[in-house]
Every structure is written in C-alpha cells, then in structure tokens.
Amino acid sequence: MKDDPDEADFVQKIEAFLVGDEVRYHYYYDRPEDDDLYELPYEKLPRNERGLYPRSLEVWYPSKGINEAVIEACIREVSRDYLELETGYISFIHPIVREEALQAYSEHIARFGGNVKMVFTEELIELMMKQMSLTREEVVNLLDRSV
Predict the structure, then answer these.
(1) d(Cα 83, Cα 92) in Å, to the nearest integer?
(2) How many CA atoms lie within 13 Å of 13's alpha carbon, on the beta-carbon side?
(3) Which strand (E) or helix (H) includes residue 21?
(4) What is the pLDDT of residue 115?
(5) Which DSSP string corresponds to 72-116?
(6) Is 29 helix (H, G, I), strand (E, B) or coil?
(7) What percent of the chain clears pLDDT 70, i.e. is strictly above it?
(8) CB of 29 within 8 A of CB of 38?
(9) Per-residue confidence (pLDDT) for residue 131, from 0 to 100
(10) β partners of residue 25
(11) 139: nearest Cα among 127, 125, 123
(12) Which residues pair with residue 28 across a beta bridge?
C-alpha cells in the first residue's frame, strides 16, 4: 500500500497508530451517486468533504490481540465518543464462536482483494487443548479447517 498514492492517507494513519498507544477511528464513506448510499445516523461522526457521514467505522485499539475485554473497551469508547453514553455492563446477546468470527473476517477481507493468512498462537492452542481435551494435532487441524 505504501507504493500506491491513493492509499497514502490510510498508510499515514496506520503508521501513526502503530507508534502510539491510543484508540483511533478510521471512517469509510459512500459517494453521493452510490445506489446503496448509507450514512450512520450519529451527529458526532465527522462528515467528509462532500458533507456525508461515514457508512461505517473501524476502531483501532492498541492491543496485541482481540478478546472480550478489548471488544468491551471499544464499545465503551464508541458509546462515549459518538453516542454520549457511559456504559456500565456490556452483554454479548448473540456471541459467536471463534471459528465463525475468523471465517467472517476472512470473507470480509477477501471481498476487498486481501490475502488473509491466520496464525494461531501457542497460547490459544494450549488453551483449546485444555478446554476441549484434544491433542495439539487435533486442535491445529480444527483451527486450520475453520479458516
């Protein structure tokens, strides 16, 4: 992406995020002529140069991994920054298993032409071995099949 002039702004945002330790947001905007134009209905979101609110946003959270605590922290940030809500208890109404989340992520990235390669940490493999009473080989095979 560094060699693509159209991605210079995005690359600069990523580089700033990587050297910092704060939450950052990245916004995606539609064009007014898009047939499926959509804007998020929150007034505190930034408008683009065409005056549109973003279609979606990403939360870039300074963490080495994603777990429920990170997700909860992101929900609190977005709620406070854009909805003016202080959240107490957060519950996961429709939790999905890790394999489903990885599959959904892979499909999402593939839509944008990305090549997704998942790598599983030894910590995850050992945790799954204990929780599922499986051998290391069985867990690795299960994870490989899920992606």
Answers:
(1) 19
(2) 12
(3) none
(4) 63
(5) HHHHHHHHHHHH---------SS---HHHHHHHHHHHHHHTT---
(6) coil
(7) 94
(8) no
(9) 82
(10) 59
(11) 125
(12) 56
Residue type at position 65 = G
The 8-class DSSP code of residue 8 comes to H
Q: What is the pTM of this model?
A: 0.62
| Structural tokens at position 113 | 């032409």
- Asked if residue 39 lies in contact with residue 11, where contact means CB atoms within 8 angstroms, the answer is no
pLDDT of residue 63: 85
What does the DSSP 8-state code read for residue 5?
G
In tens, the pLDDT along 19-67 reads 888 899 999 999 999 999 999 999 999 999 999 999 999 999 988 777 8
124's tokens? 């995850």
Residue 114: per-residue pLDDT:
64
Residue 112: closest CA among 48, 67, 49, 56: 56
Give phi and psi for 58, each to the nearest 5: -110, 145
51: left (phi over 0), alpha (psi -120 to 50) or beta: left
Q: What is the CA radius of gyration of the chain?
A: 19
Report how far residue 133's alpha carbon sits from residue 127's, in angstroms, rounded to the nearest whole number: 10
d(CA 50, CA 47): 7
Q: Which amino acid, residue 132?
A: M
Contact 53, 41 (CB under 8 A): yes
